[in-house]
Amino acid sequence: MTKRNLTLLIIIIVAILAISFGFSYFFKSSTPAPTTGTQGINFVSQFFPFLKSTAPKTAEPTAPANISGFEKAPIIEASKANMVKVSTMPIAGFGVFMQERFKEASITVTAAPDTATTTTTTKKGKTAPVKPTPPPTEFIPAVRYVDRATGNIYQTLADKIDERNFTTTVIPIVHEAFFGAKGESVVMRYLKTDDKTIETFIGSLPKQILGGDTTTDTEIKGSFLPENISDLSVSPDASKIFYLFKVGDGTVGITSGSLGDKKSQIFNSPFTEWLSQWPNDKMITLTTKPSANVPGYMYAINPDKKDFNKILGGINGLTTLTSPNGKLILYNNNNLSLYIYNVDTKSSSLLGLKTLPEKCVWGKNSDIVYCSVPKFVDQGQYPDDWYQGQVSFSDELWKIEATNNNATMISDPAAVVGGEDMDGTKLALDDGENYLFFVNKKDSYLWKLNLK
């Protein structure tokens, strides 16, 4: 064989081998490989497995550094509690009180006695009618609330929601309402037709009939307090009210009975922007109206001594909520970080939650706080943006132990009620602390959470 033919043969053999190898490779690669979770295939690495890619690996995004000083509170697991919408209309305010009702008792059938039991024999041998034994009664929590649109008052028992119209007096578009005298008096605040003047009506409610709703008279009878009252709060036993209104260039503070009687001036100030709270008989607190970029201050008044003492100050966006014993102050700043201030030790503790004291309520023993806490807090001017309705939250309900600052998430309303977001405010507890009531700021409906 010539050299030329040998070379040609070698070329033909190499070509045949190359074609065979290529056909074998492409036929194998047409079969799908098992899924490994990767989105692409590096063909070079299949042929040369010893080569390593120099491209950086994809990693999970990391959260930005926390520069706010906020620390998340420890979460303690809690079971979902039962949550129920109480009102069928937006409300202006509500009050919780104890109501008497007949106990539900099973009926026992017994054989008829041989002698009549409608009379009995006295010591003198005379007969007298037997007084029937009254059915047993019990006191249970009940709630009354004011329809924003009409001013009608409705009520229901806490353990069995059964909304009933309690009064028919019409006061259109009530913006704010309070209840006093154990639910037997009401304060309604609204604008006059000029849309500028604030009217404050205070009235007594019809008497409750055991086993029924009211007498035939369902009208609220009362009178008006001075116009343009800027703030109002109710005493712990709901027997008195405290209100502020402008006189000249300043403000005066008045205490009165729940129906506006027995008035007494206990406070005056050249400063007009105050928010009040009445945590106990010996203490009324006044906090400057908050703004994100303005230092806030808090003071306390003893209504008997009429003194005026500073408690907190120099905190931007300050809002407060005082414990019933007056020794602990729940407060926040303009990034909504929540603190507890101890009046005796003059020290503050960061709770690790972000919310406003207006979205909280103290237990009667001053050791527990229930709060409606936003899941997320976007950047903004607080509390201004929330007050003005520019920001609305989606909340969870939390229980905080004031003695050790442990926090428990007790309910996620959106999960419990099928996705309905809650921006909770005006929180209140019944006397036994079995129920937590709150108003959803998004639509002003009243809700109830069973705590036990």
Secondary-structure map:
Elements: H1 3-29, H2 43-47, E1 75-76, E2 83-85, E3 91-102, E4 119-121, E5 127-129, E6 137-147, E7 153-157, E8 164-165, E9 176-180, E10 185-191, E11 198-204, E12 221-224, E13 229-234, E14 240-247, E15 250-257, E16 264-269, E17 274-280, E18 283-288, E19 295-301, E20 309-316, E21 319-322, E22 328-332, E23 337-342, E24 347-354, E25 360-362, E26 368-374, H3 384-387, E27 395-401, E28 407-411, H4 413-416, E29 424-429, E30 435-440, E31 445-450
What's the short story on this structure?
With 452 residues, the chain is mostly beta strands. It has helices spanning 3-29, 43-47, 384-387, 413-416; strands at 75-76, 83-85, 91-102, 119-121, 127-129, 137-147, 153-157, 164-165, 176-180, 185-191, 198-204, 221-224, 229-234, 240-247, 250-257, 264-269, 274-280, 283-288, 295-301, 309-316, 319-322, 328-332, 337-342, 347-354, 360-362, 368-374, 395-401, 407-411, 424-429, 435-440, 445-450. It is built from four helices and 31 strands.
